[in-house]
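Researcher: For the annotation table, I need structure tokens for Luciferase-like monooxygenase. Please keep the output clean. Sequence:
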Amino acid sequence: MGTLQETKFSVLELAPVRDDKTVEFSLKHALELAQHIEKLGYDRLWLAEHHNMDGIASSATAVLLGYLLANTSTLRVGSGGIMLPNHAPLVVAEQFGTLATLYPNRVELGLGRAPGTDQMTMRALRRGRQETEDQFPHDVLEILSYFDDAKPQQRITATPGQGTHVPVWLLGSSLFSAQLAAKLGLPYSFASHFAPRMLGQAIQLYRENFQPSEYLKQPYVSMGVPTVVAETDAEAEYLATSAYQRVLGLMRGHSLKLKPPVESMEGLWNAAEKMSVDNFYAMAQIGSKATVKAGLKSLLERYEVDEFIFTCDIYDTEKRIQNFDLLMQIKKEI
């Protein structure tokens, strides 16, 4: 098992929208965060694709990635992920092939099989495209072929894209993508930042069935971890109430805009809702550096992952930046 120092630290950014700020503010804050974690030495920053959610501004994922790439210099950036049912594989390959051509060796493509939205928005995105059960594996293979070197008599090529060998990851919150990632020999990232229930089972399934490939010789796993790290446990618990309110809004079908922290959640949720939020955040690390360090060590001992990819829903943008400062301090402490 690796140590915290050996485990890669990365960031999953959803460009959260505050209830008192504009979407433009959120997008510019995403860049500020990218530039900051690049200096701190984080391994990668991914953007998540969601649609029709007023509190998430990363819907046009490839476009926002271009903005981040143009204003950083070494940080690897990618999608965590592109929701493949919403897109034609060729278009995805061309978009990420363009980014990879402009910014070599810095672009990654994480793929998910959920639409990342509600049924009505899903229909608006798909424009009548019919999905079948085996469509996702077929689409993944199609994208991999577009990033590979062109084959003789290949009738459709991605330009840009062909021959760029953009690294492809599979993302999942169930067992399906774990099996597919193992079969194709691709790196795997589990969405335990919001759906942790099947994490252990998925990782075991992936590792036991992994087949080495041209992309990857040994299994590689990252897990999503929500974080709220502050100077004290009490401050972190206070700041975390913004995240709790956000999940509560998701459960109730209300706004997902970040709300200011509150002294207590009592009266804002009932017992069943509190249990649901607790389950949602089962992997969350909330507290001081010492508390979170112990928590991350415990996760590492239990799951032996290669990488943590952190989310953070702190309302105060300076405190949100500080969260990632404190996480990197934890990693670098011997």
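Researcher: And a one-line annotation?
Model: The longest strand covers residues 221-229.
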